[in-house]
């Protein structure tokens, strides 16, 4: 079975980076400790330091679903909700070609 890749684009409004960046990195660091999370990188655009991409690799959809139930993800997701329109986020799932 091929692994699942979750590619997430995050754009943070001016003045809100300090409110979300630590939470993004904590979520990523904790995620790679999950049994079926193989990779979780947070990268920032060289042209816009408020524009990020998360590259997440999970064993399968069940692993991604389990990730979304963890405390570190829930803390991050709650903050996303609190920041409302100051965070733009889009995600797309891919299959890793073996």
Number of E strands:
4
Strand order of the largest sheet: 2-3-1-4
Helical coverage, percent range:
25-40%
Mean pLDDT: 96
Q: What best-fitting shape do the alpha-carbon axes yield? A: globular
User: What summary fits the major beta sheet?
Assistant: 4 strands, antiparallel
Which structural class best describes the helix and strand composition? alpha+beta
In summary, what is this structure?
The protein is of the alpha+beta class and 98 residues long. The protein has helices at residues 17-31, 61-67, 71-83, and strands at residues 4-12, 37-44, 51-58, 87-95.
Describe the structure.
With 98 residues, the protein is an alpha+beta fold. The chain has helices spanning 17-31, 61-67, 71-83, and strands at 4-12, 37-44, 51-58, 87-95. A four-stranded antiparallel sheet has the order 2-3-1-4. Strand 2 (37-44) and strand 3 form a beta hairpin. The protein is globular, with a radius of gyration of 13 Å.
What labels would you give this structure?
98 residues, alpha+beta, 3 helices, 4 strands, 36% helix, 35% strand
What's the helix and strand layout?
Elements: E1 4-12, H1 17-31, E2 37-44, E3 51-58, H2 61-67, H3 71-83, E4 87-95
Antiparallel strand pairs: 1-3, 1-4, 2-3
Helix pairs in contact: 1-3
């Amino acid at each position: 079975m091929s692994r699942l890749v979750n590619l997430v684009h995050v754009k943070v409004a001016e003045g809100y980076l300090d409110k979300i960046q630590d939470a993004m990195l904590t979520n990523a660091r904790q995620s790679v400790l999950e049994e079926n999370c193989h990779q979780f990188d947070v990268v920032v655009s060289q042209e816009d330091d408020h524009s990020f991409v998360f590259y997440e690799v999970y064993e399968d959809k069940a692993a991604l679903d389990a990730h979304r139930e963890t405390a570190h993800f829930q803390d991050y997701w709650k903050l996303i909700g609190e920041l409302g329109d100051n965070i733009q986020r889009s995600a797309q799932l891919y299959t890793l070609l073996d």
